[in-house]
Prior knowledge:
CATH class: Alpha Beta
Helix content: 40-55%
CATH topology: Rossmann fold
CATH superfamily: NAD(P)-binding Rossmann-like Domain
Oligomer: single chain
Distance between the termini: 35 Å
Strand content: 5-15%
Bound molecules: NADP nicotinamide-adenine-dinucleotide phosphate
Amino acid sequence: MSDRLVGRVALVTGASVGVGAALVKRFAQLGLKVVGCARNIDTIKTLGDELQKSKASGSVHAIKCDVTQEEEILSMFKEIKEKYGGVDVCVNNAGLLHAATILDGKTEAWKNMFDVNVLGLSICTREAVKSMRERNVDDGHIIHINSTLGHMVPDYSTAHVYSASKYAVTALTEGLRQELREIKSHIRVTSISPGIIKTEFVYRAFGQDVGQATFDTMPYLQADDIVDAVVYVLQAPPHVQVHDILIHPIEKV
Ligand SMILES: NC(=O)c1ccc[n+]([C@@H]2O[C@H](COP(=O)([O-])OP(=O)(O)OC[C@H]3O[C@@H](n4cnc5c(N)ncnc54)[C@H](OP(=O)(O)O)[C@@H]3O)[C@@H](O)[C@H]2O)c1
């Protein structure tokens, strides 16, 4: 990890399992002060304890935060400010898919996807950039964990509304880039857009049996493949703005 990043404060949302947990681990090994948030923080605390024992050079701090609740996000940023001064890197990773079509999906399922995948991400982004600017941090980084479905509408109907929420992330990435340019900031924004990853995501969305059948029959990525991409964009020299990285498993049809 470049010296520029050692000791910096990184917030990872959705850090209890999957890509988020893998990010927390790698960041702490690379010397960052990591704040991991989720609704269930037991696994983040355990990971932090393990990393401390393994003498990782960074640290892990867990904060319970449901990103659908704005007041919980604001209180998390307050806690980070008091403990560490503020956020230098914000990885908006929390995300979920409810299998819900446009024709007969439940409104609550649609709302929850937009609350987590779009509004939670937007509030965290706003608060993170605010935190960077009030400390004159001009080399901060906002990273959105998007999806290939933020760039193409799939031909499986239960993912159409999820796909719409990820298209919003694509627009928010370019929109933020433009707004940062307008204020002459060098804070960077990157979207990482993966195909299917073997995490809890598919099991949570479609149930255990479909999840098992999916991973038995389809090529897939590992969480660490996404972590590698995040580390690459963070380490890119300050004048390099990596806008989006699309990642598919190699044998995908
Ligand atoms: N897995 C895939 O196939 C795939 C493909 C493309 C893109 N992605 C994207 O990659 C990102 C990470 O997904 P993953 O595969 O790691 O999924 P995962 O294993 O299901 O983990 C999702 C994480 O999001 C957190 N989360 C969900 N709702 C939350 C809420 N209301 N508040 C705070 N945290 C919340 C969960 O924590 P708690 O439940 O403890 O709150 C969990 O830590 C997501 O944005 C997803 O859309 C995934």
